[in-house]
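User: Show me sequence and structure for the first protein, then do the same for the second.

Assistant: Starting with the first protein.
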Amino acid sequence: MIRTPLRPLARILQARQKGENPDRIERENIRLRHEEMRDKMRQRAESRLLFVGVFFVLAFTMVGARMTVLASSEAVEPRASTSGANIVAQRSDIVDRNGRVLATNLITNSLYAQPHLMIEPKRAAKELVAIFPDLNLERLNKDFSGSRKFLWIKKKLSPEQMQAVHDIGDPGLLFGPREMRLYPNGKLAAHVLGGASFGREGVHSAEVIGTAGVEKAFDNYLRDPAMDGAPLRLSLDMTIQAASRQVLEGGMKLMNAKGATSILMDVHTGEVISMISLPDFDPNTRPNGLIKGDPSDSPLFNRAVQGVYELGSTFKIFAAAQALDIGLVNPNTMINTKGPMQKGRFRIRDFHNYGPQLSVTDIIVKSSNIGTARMALDIGAKRQKEFLKSLGFFDSTPVELVEANGAKPLLPKKWADIHTMTVSYGHGMAASPLHLAAAYSTMVNGGTLVKPTLLKQQTVEKGPRVISERTSAQARTMLREVVKRGTASFARVPGYEVGGKTGTADKPKPKGGYYKDKVIATFASAFPMSDPKYVLIVTLDEPSENSGKKPRRTAGWTAVPVAAEMIRRTAPLLGLRPELDRGELSKVVNTASE
């Protein structure tokens, strides 16, 4: 900075030559300098005043805008902020084949506490226990008086419970919005749906994840935001499911059974229209699994898929169909049934003495173990194994349930001749009722393989051929005869041409051997047999029909009446019109011209 001197030498000399006073020059320069300084200070002060003015205008504008927002918005309780990424809680609905909701989402609230904000923790704990009796007062008092800054109290609240907690009035009790899974039909289809629980959790949301059934099998699909909320459509029909469950539950009680299961399947698509396992549970309040004991005693156990049983004489139709298909026999071929049949140290007997021989059809109708075993020996172990494998009896069912993977059939370790014989009539090999449903569908639909599915199918795709159409027609005729004049006579449902095969197998003991008074009773049926559309499997665990002098445990007395009532109730709901049995057309008399 260059400063002008107050007494410049040149001007002083010039003033002295003219006789002027040099001091006037100094005073004039001082005056000019002071004026310059005043101008700069004035300019600086004006700039500062402008800045302060603008600042206050902006500040008052922001305060006014915030007050306007607060005045126009709905009053809500302040909530503690959360850190981290938001949890995506949205989950798609699950619906039946007709669009009825089986599983959906419900917006509710969770309850948590911040003890350091609580005013009266002991009073709050006491009132919380009064609202939620399952809470422990001593534990709450300990948590509220400790060093914890955050504490979950309840993950799900009803509106009434939320209001009761709100009335406590303690600022340390806070609510967080929560999306939960709701199953509006309760126990209906519980084993198929499985259930859901919470995964990652935060104050403002929680991740809903599948824990069992289709909820777990399709967990990625149901949580995928790209699906844009599109529901998962199952093959189940809830009207059929409700009617079937009512009949099966009543039949289970009437027959004094420990448990029961039923499967209704479309013979062409493999769609499972109804699947029931009793006892069952409510997926809204899914219970814990058993820690010890028999897993099948748990209501979580899905007998239709996880239950691996010896299914008895229901297997006989497979031996007969294979023998027919490879040309060993025809329906009228006579087979030696004289007994007992000796094989090494083993003896095979029939329930009744059926005489020295029976036709192949009558072996199925009368359920002869000896006749079936002789056909199996002629077929041979190798061909028998290949045939049963082609029907899916060597692998877990491909149905869309996580529980199905662990339900692989139990097969003989060494497939000797004795195993060939016993497997032919359903002993020495165990499979699930769902395996049986798929195999019977293959038997009656014309001979093409069926794979069970819980998803609604838009098109029908035929599987590989297992037996010829001719063999399938012969098998249908035999199964129809079983109902007409055989062990399943109680399955006659007028107008629906029911055919099927009974199976009663002694229940194995945990440590080897078989119980004498405990059985698995199964009836595998199809209808209408002139043009099969559905297969129905009914299995009862330890049934006993006690109306007579002695308990009757065979499938003909236990599982068959239950299946017949189920068909009688559900066939009209399936859109099947009752028709006159083709065998009775000859009895119709035309009286119009008389």
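Switching to the second protein now.
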Amino acid sequence: MKKIWAFPLALAIFACNSGEKNQKMEIKDYPETAKVDTVDTYFGTEVPDPYRWLEDDRSEETSEWVKAQNEVTFGYLNNIPFRDKIEARLTELWNYAKESAPRKHGDYFYTYKNDGLQNQWVVYRKKGLDGEESVFLDPNTFSDDATTSLAGTSFTKDGSLLAYSISEGGSDWRKVIVMNTEDKSIVEDTIQNVKFSGVSWKGNEGFFYSSYDKPEGSELSAKTQEHKLYYHKLNTPQSEDELIFGGSETPRRYIGGYVSDDEKFLFISAANSTSGNELYVKDLSDWNNPIVPIAEGFDSEHSVLDNDGDRLLIETNLNAPNKRLVEVDAQNPSTDNYKDVIPETENVLNVSTAGGSIFANYMVDVKTEIHQFDYEGKKIRQVELPGIGTAGGFGAEKEDEKLYYSFTSFTYPSAIFEYNIEKGTSELYWKPEIDFNPEDFETEQVFYESKDGTKIPMFITYKKGIERNGKNPTELYAYGGFNVSLRPSFSVARLVWLENGGVYAQPNLRGGGEYGEEWHKAGTKMQKQNVFDDFIAAAEYLIDKGYTSSEHLAISGGSNGGLLVGATMTQRPDLMQVAFPAVGVMDMLRYHTFTAGAGWAYDYGTSEDSKEMFEYLKGYSPVHNVKEGVEYPATMVTTADHDDRVVPAHSFKFAAELQAKHAGETPVLIRIETNAGHGAGKPTDKIIDGIADKYAFAWYNMGVVPFDEEL
């Protein structure tokens, strides 16, 4: 069936007299989205899918639809009176020097830096911390429009070779390039079609990496199933790379291989979903040694932290939902032989190593505590941090005497500290210079009750002195899935929102990892509604306590958080004034048929599992719950044409449903970034543009005027 739609000449206009104060723009007409007679049957139930044709990302019709939608969207956004002033203020605040902690490879220390508004961060290096610094690798030169980004680096142990991966247009597909670090010459042909993979060197001879066979059809949306771990020997064709694990004999959806620091072992992690993995070990002293299982099955997670000869240190949540550190002998590495080194506690554990010590990063009510242990599990000290917030980066080589960690919070710009591993002392190494006074703002953590009585933590940040009069524009942002924890962190972009009287609220919903695997499971599959209930309860708390009102509330989230926003706004359209579902999983009946979506089944379940699971998914799937004649909040769906993580068809279909059925006068727009992906590697100018559009849309539709301007 041919898809035909009209392209109105005047898509966005000012209502009444555009010169009158407080007159709002309204959408005169949206591009007409054709419907097709596509119906799927699930357990005897027929489900129409009228916008199925939008799943074809290679078709001319889809391309024209994207152009027509963007014409409407940017026509609207560019006419918001204060939009350019928001962008100017964002640019002003963003323009400060940024850098990462230094890491030593061979004779050099490497640091990532951005002088302020560079689209991509630049890699610098110097010999010794006091040496002369020079540019080592500048991703801003990778493409004319800066949409090709540096996606990962891996140095050989002696630092003489670097394998770095690049992403083009934000895609998850990577290319790997090998460089001689001394003269920066390229060593061999580029390795192609690498996906969901790190690079792990075996000496200077070659490296391990993972990928899928190139899919038939669109590489941006076609399903990828069998991950494969390869060994690439340097200066040989990629076609000769040896398959180590995976493929038809051991089909797994996600496989990763990493070599121990002493280069004695290869460890292999294999999984079929985003939770739970198998763990294997191969002794590299003889290439013919077998791959031996350590942990089989997918009910728990296992990751090798380090080894001391045959003594393996493994972080696991086996029989420990908050995780523990165990040891096992590589010669007899069954989980039955696990012995605790750092036992499980009431707080979630993540571990790292540096300078012969183990650093335990505990999450205590979503705030960081760091404890230092020796390799036998004896506690040395608790590390004194600069304040209450999030610390990370406690990693270094065994021979290092110092490490460099970062610390941040909502009102504490990310700074780098130098830590003396033996003495346990910290000194400030670097901090940014930002036009920002933290004393002007405050953050509080509250615990509110969800629908079933569960206590949910939430951080609330705002400018000191605001009144709880229900009129403060408020962004409620959350994620709630895949064991991901939202931690306190600083955002320079958020300053524009806060300095104009805005409130930022970040609840830690079930489905995340803030309180371990049990907290995660409480927001998965047939309990996914808990996540939406937690989010709705957060909004109601903010309204009840006078921080804001429904007329001044915007809900926001990306990816799984985009699903969260889509489900919440279709269940409670009265609760918020503005909704921002970003790169969201919106079609819960078909998500598993695209790219690596089937790997999300641990969290979601699939429509093919059972009649009960199908009905549950259909009951909250955003695409299937937009109702005719309902007044939905002002909505700006956002996605990108190269998003091969959550394919843009999810957002396309959701926006089409909203535009067809929405009964109110508030706008329903879809902003489709071109030559961009799920978010990683996006150039600074695109990031600033997107945030300016978001804040302008929110304030305009709340009737809020920033910078003391008038509409």
